[in-house]
Each structure stands twice: as structure tokens, then as C-alpha cells.
Amino acid sequence: MRNEGGGAVLAERERERERERNVFPRAKLSAILRSDWKNDEDEMNRQSNASVESGVTQPSSGESSPLVMSPWNHPSSPFSKSPWTNSSSPKTLPANGLIGSMVREEGHVYSLAAAGNLLYTGSDSKNIRVWKNLKPYSGFKSNSGLVKAIVISGEKIFTGHQDGKIRVWRISPKNPRIHKRIGSLPTFKDFLKSSMNPKNYVKVRSKRTVLRIKHFDAVSCLSLDQDQGLLYSGSWDKTLKVWRISDSKCLESIRAHDDAINTVVAGFEGLVFTGSADGTVKVWHRQLQGKGTKHFFLQTLLTQESAVTSLAVNIDSAVIYCGSSDGLVNFWEREKHLSHGGVLRGHKHAVLCLATAGNLLFSGSADKSICVWKREGGGVHVCLSVLTGHTGPVKCLAVEEDQESSSKGDKKWILYSGSLDKSVKVWRMSEQAPDLHQMKLLPAPSNYTPSPLRNS
């Protein structure tokens, strides 16, 4: 027999024992994210050293708890009040946890983008779904290409695809449910004009040349610099391209890495960061040049064997975070001249996605969990909680401030997590939540067994 929700705890204990016995070696990954995931097993063989069941099964009631390692939420229900509020503890803890789940049996979720009360999801079904208040709201479909990245700039939505194309959509002013495709990058006009000049072609393989302004392999990542009106795209073709949003013109094409680019993020003070399957994180600096801009290589922050799979920047604190296929999160701090700040150890398998909000960092992994970190004074990070509930790798994250629940002394955030289990889960997180070490010092209900800590 076991207590309700005890399955997740026992499973976590067993995984912890296995980690201590070094059952999960860190394997080198030279071709991370180089598959369109025709089945779960094949994708994870390419993405990380984790293995995943092919197919999605519905968990039993005792295993479907959104919470995990976070005793302020009762394991039996995501909507029940924290058991700690009824204990002898004098302090009432903020309620963190799962708000709801959205599932459509049409493909694995590869990309997310949040804008106000709308959520955009991309999958290998080629569909972009729009959700509002946890319910289907709208949707639109591209002709081809798994949707690997989504970013939103005003009324424009940019989507990056497996077929190497960047498609541009616009919300109809008459009906916000309707999204019309208004073009692609590069534009047809620029493509024709560029193709007339032999100098605009570059050699990519033996006896093959392509236009410099067009990606010829999967567009794996997109990032916006709203202030400068720029869009950055990274691709498995190893190039970083810079686009001007106003006229969709390609300003630059940079051969940035020796292997596929998996992630790009526009940062602070004109810096742009790229991460690659070649194991490096590179820094590029935007400089004014005449009427335009040009990006120059500044430095390499990281060189390692494991593939770099995700990057995120906290603009306010000027910190850059990097997730890798070895399950680690490294970070660098601008106030210390981009010196290495430390390593966060919370996952057993590849860190596939990162997101920041306020003083929080969220890391999603191939181990199906999400670690919630809080940055404190002196660059110290503590693990507030570990969120579980997905039955497949957590592939993408998006976060928005919870305007209705936030107060002056306690900001709350809505976190969206997309998974290869074909679901999107929605969580509410508070910056004032106690960390796992603090939770162990509080009196627990008699029927609660604490889970092992996993923060570094």
C-alpha cells in the first residue's frame, strides 16, 4: 500500500539513489535537437542521454499531482489549499502550483509564446494554436515545417520552422481570432533581388551554394530586440541572421558556430548570445555603422563537450543563463564583467529550455521536471521547488506576470510549460515562496513525507 500521491515521492527517492550511484552518466551530444521527432524514442536519442517512452499514457490519480517537492501544495489535488495553512505554522505560505492543463492529441509541443491573456503553441503537426483562459481560442496552419520557435512583436507573429523558413503572420484588426500569413523571411522581392548577384551566394556543402540571406536548414530559435526593432534567427545551418522587423530585410548573416545553433537571445547593452551543439556560448556586440548596425564577435563564454541547448537573459539583473545536454545550468553576471557566476545542479538529464521572470529562473528538462530557482544577494541561487506532472520531456517555457494576483511585496507569475507529451501545463509561482531547505524546517502534516532536495 502507499499514501495518496506517494508514487511520485517513492519514484523521486529511487531516482535520487540512482543518481548517487552515478547510474546516469553525462554523454556527449553533438547533434542535439537535430530531429523532427517522428517518435519519442528517436528524438530523445538525439537530444539527450535520456530515454523516453514512445507514446503518452494517462497517469493514475496518485501520479497526476502537479506538485512535487513543494509541500505547500497538497499532492492529491492542484486546486486544494496548502496543507501548511492548516498546520501550526504561524505564517501563511503563498499558494504555488498547477492551475490547469491543455491537451490536444495532434503533436508534440515544441514552442510557446505568451502575450497578455493569449498563449501561442507550436507543434510537429504544423499547427499554431491560440489559447485564452486555458481554452482553445483560435489557430492557424502553415503549409509545411514543424514549428520550432514563436515570437510576438505587436500584431505580428514570427514562426521558425523545420523546413528552414520564417513565416510572418498578422492578427486581423476586424477579428482578433483570425491570423493571416503576410509573408516570410526573406521576402520574395529580396530573394529575387539577391539571387541576381553571384556574390550573394555562399558555399555550404560540396558543389552546393545557397543565398546568404536565406536559411537552408531548420530554424531552431528566434529572439526579439524590441527597442531596436530587430529579429534574430538561429539555424542548424550554423548561421545567425539579423532581420529588421519594419521592412523584413535581412541586415546580416553570420557564420557563428561550427555546429547547429540551438538557441539565441538578445541581451543587455547591445549584446546577443548564441548557443550551439558545438558546446560553445558566444557573445556578439551590436554597433552602429553608418545608417545601419553590425554585429561583431566579442568573446566565448563557454567551451565544453556537451551541447548547449538553451539560453535565457535576466535583463534587470544582467545575468545570462545557459542550459546544456549534461543537465547543468551555468550563469554569468554582467556586473562582474561576464565572469562565470556558478553552476546550478537540479536535473539528471538535458536542460531543454529556460525562462526568467523577476528574480526567478525556470529550467525545463528531458527528465520531465521543471526546477524553480530564485536569485538572491551575491548571485546565490536557491531552489524553491521542482514541478512535475509532465509525462514527457519539457521542451519549452513561457512566463507572464500574474497581474490579478501580484501585490507590491509579492510578485506572482504564470508559467506555461510545453512538453513532448502533447500537453501544456499552466502554473502559478510566487517569488516569496520558501525554498526547499526552509520547507524542511517547518512542521509537516502527519501524512506528508518530504521529498529529497535537488538544488545545488
Total beta strand runs: 30
User: What level of helicity do the residues show?
Assistant: under 10%
Described by the principal axes of the CA atoms, the overall outline is globular
Task: Extract low-pLDDT stretches.
Answer: 1-94, 444-456
Kindly, what is the distance between the CA atoms of the first and last residues, rounded to a whole number of angstroms? 33 Å
Structural class: mainly beta
> What is the topology, as strand order, of the major beta sheet?
1-30-29-28
**What fraction of residues sit in β-strands?**
35-45%
Task: Please state the CA-atom Rg, rounded to the nearest Å.
Answer: 22 Å
Biggest β-sheet description: 4 strands, antiparallel
Total of DSSP H or I helical runs spanning 4+ residues: 4
Q: Give the rounded overall mean pLDDT.
A: 78
Produce a short descriptive summary:
The protein is mainly beta. The chain has helices spanning 6-20, 40-47, 188-195, 436-441; strands at residues 97-103, 109-115, 118-123, 127-132, 135-141, 147-153, 156-161, 166-171, 179-185, 201-205, 208-211, 219-225, 230-235, 239-244, 249-255, 261-266, 271-276, 280-289, 292-303, 308-314, 319-324, 328-333, 339-345, 351-357, 360-365, 370-375, 381-387, 394-401, 412-419, 423-430.
Mind sketching the topology for me?
Blueprint: H1 6-20, H2 40-47, E1 97-103, E2 109-115, E3 118-123, E4 127-132, E5 135-141, E6 147-153, E7 156-161, E8 166-171, E9 179-185, H3 188-195, E10 201-205, E11 208-211, E12 219-225, E13 230-235, E14 239-244, E15 249-255, E16 261-266, E17 271-276, E18 280-289, E19 292-303, E20 308-314, E21 319-324, E22 328-333, E23 339-345, E24 351-357, E25 360-365, E26 370-375, E27 381-387, E28 394-401, E29 412-419, E30 423-430, H4 436-441
